[in-house]
Amino acid sequence: MEKAKKRRFGIIATIILILAIVFGIVWAQNTVSHNQKHQDTLARVKKSGKIVWGVKADTKLFGLMDTKTGSSEGFDVDLAKAVTKQMSKQLDEKLTPSFVTVTTASKVQLLKNTNIDGVFGVMTITPERAKIVDFSQPYFPAGQSLLVKKDSGINSIQDLNDPSKTVLVVVGTTAAQNIKKFAPKAKTIALQDYASAMQAMKSGQGQAISTDNAILYGLASENPDYHVVGGTLTYGPYGAAFDHDQKPMVKQVDQALDTLKANGTYNQLIKKWFGQVPGLDLNELEVHK
Amino acid sequence: MTLLDHYFSVFLQGFGHTLLASLYALVGSLILGTFFAIMQVTTSKVARAIGNIYVQVFRNIPLLIITLFFYLAVAKVIKMTGFTAGTIALTLYTSAFIAESVRAGILSIEAGQMEGARANGLNFWQAMRVIVLPQAFRVAIPSLGNQFINLVKNSSILAFVGGLDLMYQGNLVAANSFDTFTTYIIVGAFYLIITLPLSYYIQYLEGQLKKKA
């Protein structure tokens, strides 16, 4: 009797478990296929009356979390706000910006899952990426450079082309590929974010940090013992990114960016965020007609 | 699956580093853990206190903080890579848990065994090694198995300090390919390659020991 009871319990438990798993898989697959169905971002934005932008929270000058307000602040955030406002005028519909923190690793997945509508997140426009996401026109002329300690004696990428040298980069950036190209003998280690990379360099885990000059200037302004050297290795302008095949949305954003550049709003934002950075020539960043 | 094909050497390199870090940490933490377990059951008050402090410190601090401590602070004095820093932290962290498992094992053995062995002329270490520890390990094996499996999974901490392990390579592949979902499924499968055989081996050991007892 006791045995039969145990047996019955085992059978029922197994059936319930299997059913739960099967239903779970079916439900998950339905949701995923529903989410993956091509949605027109512009149509979604118009319907909901807001644009959800993905911005960074760990990048000084572009998108850095302000611990007092709990929201990201920087050039990317301000530009996204301005673009949203401009788009409201163009479409003659009330649109409000809303912000979600993304990381270098998560931003594309969040776009694909339609959790966010677009990304203003120091994202370099590359041909490989353009196969997976749609880019707006360039909104910031960035280029990869090097941050080193002032007394390190390193002045260019050539000084790093040695097996004893380690260059620190951040996961999800294009920096590592370029280091392999320009200094094939150097080792590269990828860390989670710029703050960790800076800490690691201070602890002697690497001799240089390589990423876009604009970000390095942000790091250098907080760490006076370090400076940016070697000019720019590459020209890699930033673009706003959207899910693949979203031409109507991209067209609207491009149009908004054109207007902002023409009416001086863009230059104002550049001055606001980059005016105080030592060693940076504002003329290179501002738009001149 | 094209993803696996395309990045196979990258995953394999990560797998190698994870396996190596787990192996070092497993051996190291077993030795350290047993040592501190014995310290906690000796009659010397000082030794007991030291053993206890060691266990409490490393058991109650997050593994990530221990890792960052070695990677960022200790590395200023002694040069070490992220792999070394991560493996040392993993060893210390796990050894605290192993010390507790082994201590529980030792305490489950009647005090009379130790007394009997001592009465027959064995010194403390001999009695420990020949009489008490073999029985204690038999009791501790299920919980030791848990610790070892946790250890393998915890080795993903190396990714935070550029330790070149599976998780680190997975992050890179995910960032390069933009296919986060598939990448982490593959990474998960690679972890199973290590943890599943380990689980079954522990189960098998338990069975063997039951038969003997």
TrEMBL record, chain A:
Quick one: signal sequence residues? none
Instruction: Output the Gene Ontology terms for molecular function.
Output: ligand-gated monoatomic ion channel activity
Keyword annotations of the record = Signal, Transport
- Which Gene Ontology cellular-component terms appear in the entry? extracellular region; membrane; outer membrane-bounded periplasmic space
- In terms of superkingdom, the source organism counts as Bacteria
Kindly state a single biological-process term from the GO annotations of this entry.
Answer: amino acid transport
Tell me what organism the protein belongs to.
Fructobacillus pseudoficulneus
Coiled coil stretches, renumbered: none
Q: Which family does it belong to?
A: Belongs to the bacterial solute-binding protein 3 family.
The residue ranges of the Solute-binding protein family 3/N-terminal domain are: 50-277
List the protein's name.
Glutamine-binding protein
Which ranges carry the Ionotropic glutamate receptor C-terminal domain?
50-276
Automatic annotation (TrEMBL), chain B:
Intracellular or extracellular location(s): Cell membrane
- What membrane topology is given? Multi-pass membrane protein
Does the keyword NADP belong to this entry? no
One GO cellular component term, please give it: ATP-binding cassette (ABC) transporter complex
Which residues are listed as membrane-spanning?
A: 20-41, 53-74, 80-99, 157-175, 181-202
Say where the protein is mainly found.
Answer: membrane
> Which superkingdom, per the lineage?
Bacteria
Tell me which residues make up the ABC transmembrane type-1 domain. Answer: 15-202
Pfam families in UniProt: BPD_transp_1
Q: Does the keyword Oxidoreductase apply?
A: no
Q: Any coiled-coil ranges, and where?
A: none
Example of a GO MF term: transmembrane transporter activity
Keyword list (alphabetical) reads: Amino-acid transport, Cell membrane, Membrane, Transmembrane, Transmembrane helix, Transport
Q: Which InterPro entries match?
A: AA_ABC_transptr_permease_3TM, ArtM/GltK/GlnP/TcyL/YhdX-like, MetI-like, MetI-like_sf
Biological process (GO), any one: amino acid transport
Q: Which family does it belong to?
A: Belongs to the binding-protein-dependent transport system permease family.
The name under which this protein is listed is Glutamine ABC transporter permease
Tell me the organism: Fructobacillus pseudoficulneus
